[in-house]
Amino acid sequence: MYSVDNRNMWINNHHIHNPSIRYATKRKKLKKVIKNMVFENAAICDEISRNQEKLLIVREECKFLTKKLRIFEPQLDVPANPTTVKKATPRKKATTNGVVTPKPRRPAAKHKKNIIEVQEPITSGNVTIYNFGDIVYDTPFYYSDCAIYPAGFYATRTYAHFRNIFSKCTYHCKVIKAGSSPRFEIMDHDKHFKVTGLSTDECHSHLISLINKLLGADDLIPANRNGDRFFGLSLPPVRMKLQEAPESKFCTGYIPLELQPNCHEAELKAESDPAVSFEGLHNTLNRFRSRH
Q1: Global pTM?
Q2: 18-37 pLDDT, tens per residue?
Q3: 3-class DSSP assignment, residue 212
Q4: Residue 176: is it exposed, middle or buried by C-beta count within 10 angstroms (0-12/13-18/19+)?
Q5: What b/e readout covers 93-120, taking b as 16+ CB neighbours within 10 angstroms?
Q6: Which of 9, 69, 118, 231 is 20 to 30 A from 161 via CA?
Q7: Residue 41 in contact with residue 49, Cβ under 8 Å?
């Protein structure tokens, strides 16, 4: 009979010289390590999601408190103890040889407009961009794989009038910040037509439906999901300008535009679509009339 020490020595030597047993032991250890890492990763993901929810709640509370503060701001300007306020003694006017010299006045400060305009608007075809807005990257609703929707974006496009397709109309396209998701707006120059939606395609489709009603058909001019193009957000100059901003790197779902040799021809073809171009619309109508 073998002693206990000799038996343990024989088992250790057998494990060392047997590769299958040695690899099986390593595999068990690796499985245990991987299992622990999977659980740890899941716990970290849960913690991140909880923190993101808390962050959204805190932001909404900050907006609510800011609105409340603006309501009470006029009351904050009133002094706490009006009786202790000292009356200002009038200063003596400066005189030169007995003649009162008028005090030089400061130049009046120019008030800023609510809409921040670009110094030199960028024009590309029928679109003119006046304001590129601010890129919002902390929520995925302000960008897609092929376009960025900056808050405050403002552009105009010339297209057929919604009441008379033979006359041109200037439509004002805006991206409005509305919490975690933007709002899109199309309005004519005379403010007789205005549509607001959750996407550019929704607003553009509503306008195209009015054009089709004038033509007496429901689908003569298809929208073809050209909302981003109608707003000017998918134009190469606009995309390249927005990609230059450092905030665009944090738009994880956005694919940056890379200019290609045949990009100009493809852009001309896309801009001649009857759903976004006044000339393209009438060319399509002329071809339709010639066939019928």
Answers
A1: 0.58
A2: 778 878 888 889 988 998 99
A3: helix
A4: middle
A5: eeeeeeeeeeeeeeeeeeeeeeeeeeee
A6: 118
A7: no
